[in-house]
Amino acid sequence: MTGFESTLANLVVMAGFADALGQFLRPENLAAVLVDGLAKAGLYVMIASGLTLIFGLMGVLNFAHGSMTMIGAYLGGLIMVGLVGGSTGFGANLLFFFVALAATFALLAGLGGVVEVGLIRQLYDRPPVYQILLTFGLTLILDEIVRIVVLFYGMQPTSDWQAALGTKPAALAESVDLGIVSVSGLSLFEIAFGTATVAGLWAFLTKTRYGMIIRAGSEDAEMTEALGIDVRRVFTVVFALGAGVAGAAGTLLMWDPAWGASVPLAADTLLPAFVVVIIGGLGTFRGTVVAAVIVGMTDATMTWWFVNEIEFAGLPEMTIFLILVVMLVLRPQGLFGVEEVGGH
Amino acid sequence: MVAVLPKVETMVAVLYFGLFAMSFDFISGYTGYLSFGHAAFYGAGAYFVVLASNGKIPLVATDTSFVVLLALAGLVAVVLALLIGAVSFRLSGVYFAMITLGFSQVLYVFVRGWDYAASNPRDGPAVLERTDPFSVGVPGVDSLNLAIGQLAGDSVEGLLGVLNFGTTEVSYYMIGLVVLVCYFAMQRIIHSPFGRVLVAIRENEERAEAVGYNTFWYKLGAFAVSAFFAAVAGGLFAGFQRSVSPENTFYFLVTGDALLASIIGGFGTLAGPLYGWLFDESVTEFLSKTGEGGGLLPYLREHLGEATMTTELYNGLTVGQTIDTFLNGHAELYVGVIFVLFVLFVPNGLLGTVRDRLGGPVGEQVAARLRGDEE
Questions:
Q1: Gap between the Cα atoms of A39 and A194, Å rounded
Q2: B-chain residues within 8 Å CB-CB of A312?
């Protein structure tokens, strides 16, 4: 190829790229990506905030978090399938969803409390790596138990549990017209749900007395102890809370056709959750929220480029991990992190 | 009695994966830096061997001797480790684990979508171009080579007049030879002054620095050495199986398996992870569906008798079905339980505990007792 020809080829490629960029920058496409990104951010903040709560106070990186999310997806789905008998209306289905959500939250919080008291409490005197190891072993056990149950009851002929997906109200599957762009009702629901969770957790942490104790415990566990507060019990509560939020996230994921209830969901949610909490700064709730928006937006943008222009299936996922790597290189403590977090 | 021993196929897997677990222990057990993305090097080695055999690596002929391929795969991993390590060793603790995990996941997702590697990258490539088997031995001297592989390998008959080996047994010994050489090499490095610095880093990095060691270069060097042997392990795996997939090479749960082996065998005892993985595979095989070498399921089926097996326990569930449900292919559950029990109650692992009891490395202690040395 002569120099001229290669220049020409480059120009053609660049023209193609400029064209694609022009497409991407059109208002309706940008708006669609924005809504999609916010919906994804809603999911990411759900799967990551439990993890960051636990790490922030206890310094325990909970590898079993993804498994708890996965169990939440199945439990939430089971309860929904049980409650939604015939065809019910939008309002009734939504009501059942919140019943299922509350039940899943409670059950997972119970599991979290048992795990903290029964297992993790034994390890506070050891180096922190042992807590990672223990929770890693826990994921193996939990995943396999769920797999046995799922196989035994013949719940899962396909990878996504269709029965659970089917309990979604019809209105959430339809498109909603927002002027320049029409988006799926589920996306709007996820945005609303994520926002409500963030608001709720924020209010709990900053406005309630127990939230204050949790924040005090994560700032200085010894001083909090000296003030007469049983930090060990706070640990249990926070671990239960984190597990409960993971379960709630699972219940939300069960409805999303891109995720659904399946055993591999454990690993599929664990890694993005790690990415989000590390970008935001391990243990900072504010950072987790900001990072979830960043990761959600990146995911949505890259998904658009993959669907429309770039033929590489792994593009969105790879970009997410690249952000993690770049973030750790530039600012290891994360966006809002401090040098040292956690302590006991 | 024979039923208790694992099958030869299992033992081959124990050898190459045990080598990978040892290489993981070499960096994580001795420096204390949890390399959670170690599968990247295992995968790089495995993919290198398969891609080179398909003529997809420039300048490497498809019929290059397997031993040379292993060494080249190791060197590729060394380069990769230097690149990843140069960035990652600025961090420590959880952050180091996370950045290495991040790098390996980037590679995993990339390979899973890379259609140059295989026509269906999600399933991974198989050796297609190269028809002659992979041989372990002295490159260029045919009589000093024996081929490995389940179907493609050599078999030996009438060695020393009486010994006969099938293809899998030959693979077992030849892969074992490579693993043994790698083990001795790593052990030599651990017991050198270089290795002592690694332990010093694990025990107290600040003090090691204060004494005057530039710990960054030591860690990077150890990472590169570890990556080399991880890639050799991956190459052995690819050479034996003749096909690889992203899931069994680059995925982060592959590192998880190495971690499992290291904890059960003994963290920071180079040979321990091999025993750990042997233990793990034995449990898996003991609980496996077919259990050709014995196993719990066939045993129970045989000895419980028809009446017991069809006894109804609960709501139409028979004993036989219960056994099937809880044992059939669910070894992971019991391995997980064992792992958690080890973390809680046997933090030094199998070999570490034995060494603690004896008061030093097993070989030395046994020799000392035999000689009748005074304590």
A1: 8
A2: 113
Taking contacts as CB-CB distances below 8 angstroms, the residues of chain A near B90 are: 329, 332
Tokens of B115: 């259609």
pLDDT in tens, B222-254: 999 999 999 999 999 999 988 899 999 999 999
Dihedral (CA of B137, B140, B143, B149) sign: positive
Please give the Cα distance from A232 to B374 (Å, whole number). Answer: 49
Nearest CA among A256, A292, A250, A251 for reference residue A274 = A292
Instruction: Name which of A269, A312, A325 to mutate to probe chain B: the one with the most chain B Cβ atoms within 10 A of its Cβ.
Output: A325
- The complex's ipTM works out to 0.84
Interface probe with B: pick from A134, A141, A298, most Cβ of B within 10 Å = A141
Say which of B87, B94, B332 has its CB closest to residue A61. B94
Show residues of chain A in contact with B259, CB under 8 Å. Answer: 133, 136
Length of chain B equals 375
Question: Which residues lie across from B136 on neighbouring strands?
Answer: B146
CB contact under 8 A, B113 and A312: yes
Angle B215-B217-B218 from CA coordinates, rounded to 5°: 60
pLDDT in tens, B144-165: 677 777 666 677 766 666 677 7
Q: Do residues B52 and B46 touch, judged by C-beta distance below 8 A?
A: no
